[in-house]
Structure formats: C-alpha cells, structure tokens
Amino acid sequence: MINIIGLGYIGLPTALMFASHGVEVVGTDYNKELVDTLNHGRTTFEEDGLDELFKAAVEKGIKFSSEYMKTDMYIIAVPTPYDKDSKRIDPSFVTGAVENVLDYAPKGAVVVIESTISPGTIDRFVRPIIENKGLVIGEDIHLVHAPERIIPGNMVYELLHNSRTIGADSPEIGEKVKALYSSFCQGEIVVTDIRTAEMTKVVENTFRDINIAFANELAKICRSDNMDVYEIIRIANKHPRVNILSPGPGVGGHCISVDPWFLVGDYPQTANLIKQARMINDSMPEFVLGRISDIMKENGVKSVSRVGLYGLTYKENVDDIRESPTLQMLESMERHLASGVKVYDPYVEREICENQYHDFDEFLSEVDIVVILVGHNEIRENMEKLKGKIVLDTRNICNLPGTYRL
Ligand code: SAJ
Questions:
Q1: Is the dihedral of CA 110, 26, 189, 113 positive or negative?
Q2: Counting atoms of ligand 1 from 1, which one is nearest the CA of 153?
Q3: Which residue of 79, 82, 101, 218 is most buried, as measured by CB atoms within 10 A?
C-alpha cells in the first residue's frame, strides 16, 4: 500500500493513476472538506480525463482520508511556496508532512518527495528532521525525490507518457521506487541521486522561463520600433536550430513563475540571466497595461470601465488562477486607483474580483475594448462575437482586422 500525502494538483492525479493501475492507495489530506468531496465521488478541479481516471481509481478501491497510514511507502505532494522577499523556498509544508509521516512509518519505510523543492532542500531541511528523531537514514527511513513533470491541461496524458527522474541515496531504493512508478509510467525513468533530481526539476522550469522571457523581450523591442514580432518569430523558427516561444501577457502558474526564484535566492551572485528573465516576465502585465492605456487614448475611450479583460486563469483551458498575469494586472490597477475594469473567464465561477462577469455576451455588451489575456477554446471558437470591438490580443489568436497586439 502507498500513502500519498497532499491531494492537490499533483497528488490527486498521481494517486488516481497508481490506484487505477492496481496499486493499493490511500490519499491523505489535512483539508477535511477536500477529503469529503472526494469521498462523495467528486473531483476537486477540472482537468482533461481526470473524472474518468477518478472513476477507474474508485472502482479499484482507492481511499481518501485525513489520517496518515502505517505503510512502507509514502509519497509527499504538498505545496512549496516561496518567500516573496527573500525568494527562498518555504519548506514548511514538506517538513510538516515528513514529521507526520515519521510518526507512522515502520522501520525501512520509503519517503518519496514529489513536491518541487529547491536544490539542497532535502539535505538542509528534511534529513535533520529524521536524524533528530534518532532515526538512521538508509536503515530506518529511505529518502527519495521524484519530482513531477506534468503540465496542467494535459496532466493525465503526460503522467502516463513523460519520462521521470528518481533521485535516491542508494541505487537499490531508486530501483524499488522506479518499479512502483513503472506500474503506470510508460516513459523512461532515470535513477540518479537526490541533489541531481532536485536541481534538474528546477532547471527544467527555469529553461522555459528564460525562453519565454526572450520572446517577451523581443515583443517589447518590436513594439518600440514598429516591427511584427509574430512574423519575425514565425520566420526565425524555420531555421532548423531556432525555436522561439510565444510572447504573452506574463508567466503565471505555480511552477515556472516560482521555481527560478529558488536559484536566484540561493545563488544571488551567479544567477544573473535567470533573475533578468524572471524580471522581464514579471514586467509583462505592466507592459500590457501600458498598451491598454495607449489604445484607449488612440480610440478616445475615456473610462477604464469600458475595458474588458478576457481570462483570469494563468493559461488556456485550465481553472487555475495562481500567479496569473490578469491578477497581477488587477493588483497593479488597484494600486494606481484605476477601478472599474470588467473581467470575465468561463473557467472561473468563484467571485475573484469586482466587476466579474459570468456570461460572455453580457460581458461583451458592457465594454468597448476587449483584452484577450488567455486563449481559452471558448474565445477561439467565438471570435466573430468580437466584431465591432476594439481588440488587444496578447495571445495572437484573433485575426479580425484592426486587432492590436502586444
Ligand atoms: N507561456 C507564454 N509563452 C509560451 C509558453 C507559455 O507566455 O510560449 C506562459 C503561459 O501562458 C503561462 C506560463 O507561461 O502563463 C506557464 O505555462 P506553461 O504551459 O509553459 O507551463 P506550466 O506552468 O503550466 O507547467 C510547467 C511545465 N514545465 C515545463 O514545461 C518545463 C510542466 O511540465 C511542469 O510539470 C510544471 O511547470 C510544474 O509543475 O513544475
């Protein structure tokens, strides 16, 4: 039996995947409401294929609880926030979960940490907890880091097909955990040491952040000198060794906009490019606000209440709003006392901000300028509804004549 601790965006699909492939699983979360929802047969967020996976796992007998289990295999998938000032990781959820697990774990149990952690977190924060309890790592408790790689929006497919990394102190334990993940994972599973696994995960997201920052910086350069960034990227990408990503309104989500800061926080003298990239991406919401202001002036739109922001999530076709560029824009507007902007997102039913609409047509009827911040399928499939509006398209998905871009 495995006990998966933390049933959020990563823990839940992972637990369901193991269970639906015949592994006995108990999923544990301290949030009793969440556990209740799952026990009542409902999933807790929207994701392609998640409901089907949930059904298959329930049929195979998965259990959800707010109690920890006594078993020889734990997988910890709890959040790892970062301190916004020091840019360092806040490992308290991980260390808290490890402390709890140790109260139940029998001798020889394996504790796998899936949460993304900054390089060195296991050495600095996790090992001391185990040692302070008088336990010997490698005998009483085995430690493993198996970071996830799945992308929101395509999680179920990627869980099955992506390659994975398993970092362990000993190859034997690495192979044991590899065998467990092989129950569902069809990708290559690489076994390495813990430090390498920690660093690899953070490096992967940093790579993407830097590449998005390059596209965003190009967008700014091209805007300043009246060049078409999309056409330039399209042509440049025909080169066999060039693959420029897409500029956008900023980088949101809980991964790419967070992980690179771990490196900046831990290596402030050396992580220069990484820091610049983060700052470029973080400057994009402000850049979009500048574009809105210019377009308002150009078109004689006097009040920000005639502007509508389409999309609150951090990217298309997901319901996750963490660190989303739209939220960053709203915060900035609030700081500058600019109120009245209208907001709509088909994936967000909860009331997140003022002037939030829940009906696309009603939203459109209230605004003159539509700012496309997220390329949800809904807007891609209903572009003709924007006819007659002034459109600022930060995702390059609208081909109505006269559309403004980044
Ligand atoms: N974005 C752009 N331009 C692009 C691509 C993305 O502006 O060309 C923006 C998106 O709109 C979004 C943000 O970047 O706001 C991040 O989106 P994403 O789809 O690139 O990635 P995430 O954050 O959803 O998931 C990432 C993935 N990491 C990599 O691709 C290296 C995923 O595989 C990881 O599992 C995940 O982080 C994680 O949990 O770490």
A1: negative
A2: 24
A3: 101
Give all strands (DSSP E) within 59-159, no chain letters.
63-65, 73-76, 109-113, 141-145
Mean pLDDT of 85-92: 85
Which is catalytic among the residues 87, 185, 222, 255? 255
Residue 76 is given by DSSP the state E
Question: Which residue out of 63, 87, 176, 201 is catalytically annotated?
Answer: 201
Residue 242 has pLDDT above 80, yes or no: yes
Q: Is 255 a catalytic residue?
A: yes
In this structure, are strands 63-65 and 25-28 parallel, antiparallel, or unpaired? parallel
Ligand 1 atom closest to the CA of 205, numbered from 1 = 31
Distance (angstroms) between ligand 1 centre and the Cα of 110 equals 30
Ligand 1 residue neighbourhood (C-beta within 6 Å): 116, 148-152, 204-205, 208, 212, 245-246, 248, 251-253, 255-256, 314-315
Statement: residue 403 has pLDDT above 80? yes
Q: What is the pLDDT of residues 157-180, one digit of tens each?
A: 999 999 999 999 999 999 999 999
